[in-house]
Write a structure and sequence with these properties.
Length: 246
């Protein structure tokens, strides 16, 4: 469905980003695996993609740093000659009640989760405009829709991503660049592993489908939005949350 397309997935060395990278590769895309942490894990994703018969390479870049982002996108275009799909997936949490949240924890989460989306989107725009087509998929969160106590920084960033998605969808529509967001609910990853049993039980009680989501269930939606199965959807936020927020 996305054969020979070039996809850049941020934060792709583990979790949802890793799954999106592998799903894209299984469907014929060449994938650039961005990472900020473990080089070894990023290389494992590249190796798995190669085993699937697709091309891939890894690029270390902090999405909140403009120089890093520019260098990363330059490398993608030098290596593959095109850039068709950007998935803004990289994200962090630094949770605390607002009264106790430090300025630096607020800034760090906004920088990675919101400014990172801005910088990467800005970085790919020229190339996608030149190609007269592109897909940008932003990974927001269901809490960006509903709010969540203890996550003022994260929620502000993820709600911001939904606003950025709508605005960029409008700005780029005439250039055939479609921009959408995915708002996952609670998905089984390292991020949700941090929660204790009581918190997990509490969560399950508010999810109509009574289970945590799997990374594949998010990656399949990203594949749909990146593919030609989706040609008339832009500026939308698709909730992948087991019905938690309606
Ligand atoms: P994760 O912590 O497993 O993965 C996040 C990835 O982002 C990691 O590979 C990390 O190294 C990378 N990253 C962090 N800061 C970065 C930076 N500055 N530059 C580049 N990469 C950076 O988390 P995950 O659960 O896979 O989350 C992926 C995305 O999905 C995040 O945006 C997260 O907010 C969102 N999300 C996750 C859930 C969930 O339940 N897991 C729910 C809603 C939204």
């Amino acid at each position: 469905m996305i054969k020979d397309k070039v996809a850049l997935v941020t934060g792709a060395s583990r979790g949802i980003g890793r799954e999106i990278a592998l799903t894209f590769a299984r469907n014929g895309a060449k994938v650039v695996v961005n990472y900020a942490g473990s080089e070894e894990k990023a290389q494992q994703v590249v190796d798995e993609i190669n085993e699937l018969g697709s091309e891939a390479f890894k690029v270390k870049a902090d999405v909140s740093n403009e120089a890093d982002v520019k260098a990363m996108i330059k490398e993608v275009i030098n290596e593959f000659g095109q850039l068709d799909i950007l998935v803004n997936n990289a994200g962090i949490t630094k949770d605390n009640l607002l009264m106790r949240m430090s300025e630096s924890d607020f800034d760090d989460v906004i920088d990675t989760n919101l400014k990172g989306v801005f910088l990467c989107t800005k970085g790919v725009t020229r190339q996608m405009m030149k190609q007269k087509s592109g897909r940008i998929i932003n990974v927001s969160s269901i809490v960006g829709v509903s709010g969540n106590a203890g996550q003022a920084n994260y929620v502000a960033a993820k709600a911001g991503v939904i606003g950025l998605t709508k605005t960029t969808a409008k700005e780029f529509a005439s250039r055939n660049i479609l921009v959408n967001a995915i708002a996952p609910g609670f998905i089984e990853t390292d991020m949700t592993d941090k929660l204790n049993e009581e918190q997990k039980e509490q969560m399950l009680s508010i999810i109509p489908l009574s289970k945590l989501g799997k990374t594949e269930e998010v990656a399949n939606v990203a594949l749909f939005l990146a593919s030609d199965l989706s040609t008339y959807i832009t500026g939308q936020t698709i909730q992948v949350d087991g019905g938690m927020v309606m």
